[in-house]
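Inverse folding, one chain.
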């Protein structure tokens, strides 16, 4: 924003007189704009409504005029058709006879043109007067023209009668004149012997209608072609502007007899509003008409009205601004004086007074400002003192809650030192805490004396000391009164002045007590003055919370240490138990398999149950060892090149006995092009063992279990599918959680520890693979897991010269400890 503009805005913004005037000026301007808009809108609306009404009335007059012209035609036609002797004259074909009969009727009915034709459409007589003539002498006659090319003539002489009768109407161009024609038959003994055409000149009719409506009138045929108009045409452009296009014709013809269409045009710099209507004859559309009115008058009148309104409201705006400016100056002079005094008071000069005396609002404001100045001087002094207290309180509370941390001894020392610094007139601060029994207050910290010289105080449930502390606020007591509750001596220093005690309450629990002894050499300040009592209460509350947090932290530390020791014992027990169980389990499996093959047929089922139970027990022991190593962070991979087929076949062989015992069928489907992968064969076997064990347990007797492997991106995809009861969607979200088991009726008796799927997930992720489940209740479950073809370790080891220290370190971290 340029500098001058900014200075101008700042000037207006800093002057209250403009802040008073401008809202009213803006409000007046807004009212002026709205007033001008509404006034001109109302005037324009009224004019527009009148204009529209005039246009509609003109359209009605045109429609009625055309209808009357049709009636005039019918009247003249009937008069001629029923003239005595007209039929014989037509049959005779003599023009003079016909003229003698017809001419008086043409003159009487003021007809523009009458044609008499025979049955061949040949003109027997034509009586007409030129379009611009009105006298009787102007009529002329002729005969011999062929009018058979007119469709309506052919209909009449052919005797065609429709639901509207035997007379027809049309618009046609004859002898370079646009005519409105009504055709009717001449009969002799109900036999058509000729036809009568009664016509009116379209331009003359339009001129008559224009004079009656004070509007310009145009007439069109059904194709929208302009037949005639009272507007002064200016060439093809004007003709095209007046024409009715196909869309407009369709709208006029499809919306009924009351249909109308309105649009505006600009002809040679003049604006017209046109209203279109359907020209109907015999109840059928014969063409279209339009009436046009100029908008010049209405536009000029609206502009004049708007200019007058703008002038009136602009004058009012200037008057409001001028009067407001002078009135604002009268008010703001004294306000300026008040502002200067207020600025001086804000700057710290509390000796300034306004010296304004009046009975109005400004006088009341000046008096209030003087009173406020006196009060501020008093409050500032008190506030300064309060700030000093709060600063000391903040420093003391910071020392207790932040600097001392969660060490109880540090917190107690911080409490004694900070309280002594903050509370003026204090000689010594002693902290007593409630012991574990809750019936004794023991000295835990002091700012001066040795703790061994301080007494412990009885804190019985219904004792007097508990009642004193229950008041939850600082109290003045004599040390001799406190010594009365001592269990092992008295305070060495009692003095003559009362001491002050404050309970340490955290939540609803009393955790101890603060004792402050007075400094006898500091007579200027009483220890129990109001400010000290307030500060001590606040500091005691903060100290109680800090002490309670430190006590809780120490208790938590002790509990954590005990839990750590128990966890170490648990881990040690699992390691010993699992290692000791694996050797006999291996022997049991070997002997059980050996015995199964050689046992009699009646014992073979029992021996197979023994083999299956041994396999299940070995799986549980492996799970215990694996989960312990995963928790301890010692379950690393022994990576080698392996064929997934070998691992799958070995695991399936181990579980055949368990599957046969349950009546299951085990199937293996392996792709032909499975790649070799870099993985820990033992861990992959454990993954498959857990999945296969779950499938056997969770599938009803006689089920089908399929283990499959196929190529998957840069590795293999292994799946274990069963046709058991499936897993509910709610259980699918938690089945990989530790110790979570989805219980169903058919697995009753097949126990488990709920660690199998947790181990599967962690071992697959240790190989940097993925595991997921797809299941539908009642249709079975499929577990999928992927193994990459190359692990990051194998890729790194394959690089030439990858023997630096970081590689050796990572190799050591990934080596699996030998059980």
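Residues assigned per position:
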């Amino acid at each position: 924003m340029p500098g001058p503009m900014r200075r101008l805005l700042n000037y207006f913004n800093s002057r209250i007189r403009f802040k008073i005037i401008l809202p009213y000026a803006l409000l007046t301007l807004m009212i002026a704009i709205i007033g001008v808009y509404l006034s001109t809108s109302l005037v324009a609306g009224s004019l527009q409504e009148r204009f529209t009404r005039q246009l509609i009335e003109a359209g009605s007059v045109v429609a009625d005029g055309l209808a009357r012209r049709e009636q005039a035609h019918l009247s003249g036609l009937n008069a001629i058709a029923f003239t005595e002797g007209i039929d014989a004259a037509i049959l005779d074909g003599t023009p003079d006879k016909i003229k003698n009969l017809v001419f008086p009727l043409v003159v009487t009915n003021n007809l523009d043109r009458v044609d008499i034709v025979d049955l061949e459409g040949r003109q027997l007589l034509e009586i007409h007067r030129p379009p611009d003539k009105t006298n009787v002498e102007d009529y002329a006659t002729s005969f011999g023209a062929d009018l058979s090319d007119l469709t309506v003539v052919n209909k009449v002489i052919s005797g065609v009668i429709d639901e509207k009768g035997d007379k027809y109407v049309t618009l046609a161009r004859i002898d370079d004149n646009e005519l409105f024609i009504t055709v009717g038959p001449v009969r002799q003994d109900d036999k058509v012997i000729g036809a009568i055409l009664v016509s009116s000149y379209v331009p003359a009719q339009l001129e008559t209608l224009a004079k009656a409506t004070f509007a310009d009138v145009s007439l069109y045929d059904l194709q929208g072609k302009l037949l005639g108009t009272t507007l002064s045409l200016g060439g093809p452009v004007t003709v095209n502007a007046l024409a009715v296009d196909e869309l407009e014709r369709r709208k006029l013809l499809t919306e009924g007899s009351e249909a109308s269409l309105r649009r505006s045009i600009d002809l040679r710099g003049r604006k017209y509003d046109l209203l279109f209507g359907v020209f109907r004859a015999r109840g059928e559309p014969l063409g279209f008409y339009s009436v046009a009115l100029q908008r010049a008058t209405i536009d000029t009148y609206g502009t004049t009205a708007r200019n007058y309104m703008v002038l009136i409201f602009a004058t009012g705006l200037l008057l409001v601004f001028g009067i407001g400016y002078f009135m604002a100056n009268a008010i703001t002079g004294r306000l300026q004086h008040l502002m200067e005094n207020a600025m001086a008071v804000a700057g710290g000069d509390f000796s300034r007074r306004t010296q304004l005396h009046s009975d109005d609002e400004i006088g009341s404001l000046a008096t209030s400002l003087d009173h406020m100045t006196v009060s501020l001087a008093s409050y500032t002094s008190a506030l300064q003192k309060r700030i000093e207290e709060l600063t000391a309180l903040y420093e003391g509370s910071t020392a207790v809650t932040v600097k001392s941390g969660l060490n109880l001894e540090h917190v107690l020392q911080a409490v004694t030192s900070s309280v002594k610094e903050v509370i003026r007139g204090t000689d010594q601060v002693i902290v007593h805490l409630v012991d574990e029994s809750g019936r004794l207050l023991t000295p835990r910290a002091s700012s001066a004396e040795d703790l061994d010289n301080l007494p412990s105080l009885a804190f019985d449930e219904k004792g007097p000391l508990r009642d004193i502390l229950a008041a939850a606020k600082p109290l003045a007591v004599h040390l001799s009164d406190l010594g009365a509750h001592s269990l092992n001596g008295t305070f060495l220093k009692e003095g003559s002045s009362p001491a002050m005690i404050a309970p340490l309450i955290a939540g609803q629990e009393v955790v101890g007590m603060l004792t402050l002894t007075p400094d006898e050499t500091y007579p200027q300040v009483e220890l129990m003055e109001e400010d000290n009592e307030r500060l001590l209460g606040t500091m005691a509350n903060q100290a109680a919370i800090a002490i309670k947090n430190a006590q809780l932290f120490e208790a938590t530390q002790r509990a954590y240490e005990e839990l750590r020791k128990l966890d170490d014992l648990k881990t040690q027990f699992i390691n010993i138990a699992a290692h000791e169980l694996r050797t006999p389990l291996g022997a049991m499996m070997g002997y059980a398999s050996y015995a199964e093959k050689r046992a009699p047929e009646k014992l073979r089922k029992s021996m197979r149950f023994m083999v299956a139970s041994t396999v299940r027990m070995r799986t549980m022991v492996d799970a215990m060892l694996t989960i312990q190593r995963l928790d301890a962070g010692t379950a690393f991979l022994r990576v080698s090149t392996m064929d997934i087929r070998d691992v799958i076949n070995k695991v399936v062989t181990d579980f055949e006995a368990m599957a046969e015992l349950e009546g299951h069928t085990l199937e293996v489907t392996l792709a032909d092009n499975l790649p070799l992968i870099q993985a820990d064969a033992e861990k992959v076997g454990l993954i498959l063992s857990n999945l296969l064990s779950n499938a056997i347990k969770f599938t009803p007797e006689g089920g089908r279990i399929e283990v499959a492997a196929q190529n998957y991106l840069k590795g293999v995809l292994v799946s274990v599918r069963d046709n058991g009861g499936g897993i509910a969607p709610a259980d699918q979200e938690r089945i990989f959680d530790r110790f979570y088991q989805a219980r169903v009726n058919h697995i009753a008796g097949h126990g488990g520890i709920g660690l199998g799927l947790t181990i599967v997930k962690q071992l697959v992720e240790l190989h940097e693979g993925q595991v997921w489940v797809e299941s539908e209740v009642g249709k079975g479950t499929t577990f999928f897991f992927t193994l990459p073809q190359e692990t990051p370790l194998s890729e790194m080891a394959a690089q030439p010269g990858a023997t630096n220290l970081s590689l050796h370190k990572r190799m050591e971290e990934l080596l699996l400890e030998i059980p």
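The CA atoms of residues 303 and 753 lie 95 Å apart. Confidence is low (pLDDT under 50) at residues 746-751, 793-819.
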